[in-house]
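Troubleshooting log. The previous structure file for this entry was overwritten by mistake, so regenerating from the original sequence record. Sequence copied from the archived sheet and checked twice against the printout by T.R.
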Amino acid sequence: MSRTLPVLQIHGLRDAIVPLERGRRLFEALPAERKRLVVLPGAGHNDIPYHDPERYLSEIAAFLGEQLD
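Regenerated output below.
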């Protein structure tokens, strides 16, 4: 039986280093059964936690909470 860890991928819509389409392809290739892709409009590559800190933290908290259920 193979097990994978849950994955939360947070991607900035304005990411010029890893374009969103490439991020989506990486996400789809993940073997994890429990995975979520969150796209933050206006965020780039290195400013994701700072662009919208409230949403960033709430997405992480929600994902972690779901893993405990």
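The CA atoms of residues 12 and 40 lie 5 Å apart. Archived copy saved in two places this time.
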